[in-house]
Amino acid sequence: MRISPRHPRAASLRTRARLAREMRKGVVAPEGLIAHGRGEAFDYLLGERSSAGARKAERAAAAWLLAARRPVVSVNGNVAALAARPLARLVRALPGLRVEVNLFHRTPARAARVASRLRAGGIRTVFGVHPTVRIPKLPSDRALVDREGIAQADVCLIPLEDGDRTEALRALGIRVISIDLNPLSRTSERSDLPIIDELTRALDHITRAIPLQKAQARPGFFRPFDRSRALADAFATIERRLTRETRARAPRPSRHR
Ligand code: PTJ
User: Fold this and answer.
1) Residue 36 Cα, ligand 1 centroid: separation in angstroms?
2) What's the pTM?
3) What is the mean pLDDT of the chain?
4) Which segments of the chain does DSSP mark as H helices, in order?
5) Which one of 3.40.1170.60, 3.30.70.360, 3.40.50.12640, 3.90.1150.10 gives the CATH number of domain 52-220+227-237?
6) Which of 72, 93, 161, 175 could serve as 210's disulfide partner, Cβ 3.0–4.6 Å?
């Protein structure tokens, strides 16, 4: 389908078309399309741009990734389809960052397809295609991790994740940085450093913050992050936006009585 560049929602339509294409190729799970719709709805409410609170979280995430000894980013089908190139740029800025495929709807063939999508985007080494370790007390296939990747991580960046694994990773002592547009999700609520922003915007902002944070970074030293404040900021952004929209549509008092 041809998307007119003049369409007011051209970017959003292009993203949807890409996800549908990647779903037909077996990179994105059918459920991934539903997850994207949920994300889009929250992005509308957030004004489709990164809030000041999200930018702050993105700077803090860059600092934590620099301070980590073994940072890993966990990648599912949606992330590979939408952000292989932004992820490759992040890895170039932070060469120690390992990229691991981790799928909720896992089959060996799908894991291989997600990995080749990442390689096509410019990421040379991809972990997690043949996982050898299980995260304890996690029944889903998201428990399957790579001995050289998440199993050894001290900081894990998890875009579009589920709440159970967020909790399971934290229980292993791993610091969790999440990216999720939904501030009410269990992932956002349970993460150590919740970034309430769109995936590609968040990754670009983290990448740009890496050189700026480098001078202050010390391995193993993690600047405290106020996660409750980050969530409250996101709710306040949505509230402000809805209040503005409500006021703009409120009936004006009539001058003629
Ligand atoms: O590829 P798989 O098999 O690992 O499956 C991946 C999905 C995404 C299907 C799976 O992780 C899933 O079901 O996720 P959830 O529980 O629907 O959660 C996805 C979260 O990501 C939701 O809270 C959405 O709001 C959010 N989200 C969706 N798209 C974006 C997003 N957040 C940031 N940027 C987006 N582009």
Assistant:
1) 6
2) 0.96
3) 95
4) 10-24, 30-46, 52-67, 77-93, 108-120, 163-171, 186-190, 199-213, 227-249
5) 3.40.50.12640
6) 93
